[in-house]
Amino acid sequence: MRPPRLLVIAGSDSGGGAGIQADIKTGFAFGVHVSTAVTAITAQNSLGVQGIWVMDADVVQAQIRSVLDDIGADVIKTGMLGDAPVAEMVADEIERSGLPAVVDPVCISTTGAALLTDEAIAVYRERLIRLSTVVTPNMPEVHALTGLDVAQASDLPAAAAALLALGARWVLVKGGHLDGPATDLLADGAQTIELTGPRIDSRNTHGTGCTLATALAARLAYGDEVPTAARAAKEFVAAGIRGSYELGKGVGPVSQWERPTGR
Description:
263 residues; alpha/beta; nine-stranded mixed sheet; 8 helices; 9 strands
C-alpha cells in the first residue's frame, strides 16, 4: 500500500539537526513518504549558522512541480524559505495545488541567526498565512509577523488572534520560550485549546520547530483533524527532547527515533 505523501519545502541543515534532514527523519518515524524541495543550503553546526545560500526561485519551483506532477502529495509543509522571491513562488504553488499546508514561518535559528529577509516576512503576512491550514510560530516569529511581544502564557491568546486576523485557519503558537510548563496554544477563532506538558530540562533542542510542524503535517496526511494532529506532534517532540543527545560543542538535536504513539 502507498503511504501518505508529504512534500516538504525547506532548507538543508548540514549538521542534520533541523531543516530538511529533521523533516525526513520525522516523516520516516510516522511512516510517511517525504519528498523535498530544497530552498537553501546552510553551513551550520551545533554552534550556529556560518553561511546561507538561498536557491533561485525557479530552481525551487522546478523541484515542487517535479514532485507534484508525478508523485503528488497529501499535505505540503514549508520551513525556511529564505527570501521574498522564493516565498512568493511557494505561495503561488500552494494556491495552485489546493493542498493543505502546514506553514512553519522559520525566521530565526535556535542559535539566533536570521533565516528570513524582511521582504519575505511581508509575503507571510500578505499571502502565506492565509493559505495555511496551520501556521506554527514560536515567540520570536510571532513578534516578526505581528509586532506583538509574548512574555507570558496569558499573552498567547492575543498572539493567536493576531495571526488569525491575517487569515490563518488554525494557529499553533509555541510557548517553548516561556517560563513554567511547556504550553502551546491552538486556536481557529471558534475554539482555543491549550496543549500543556512538563518542561524537560535539556539544552539539546535543535530542530524542535521543524520536527513539530512536520509531525503535525504527517498526521494530517493520515487524515487526522488538526487538534488530534497537534496533540500527537507535541507528544512526539516531547519524546524527542527526552531522547535528545549531545552532539558537537553547542546545542544538540532532538531525537526522531521514538516511534509515535498511534502509528
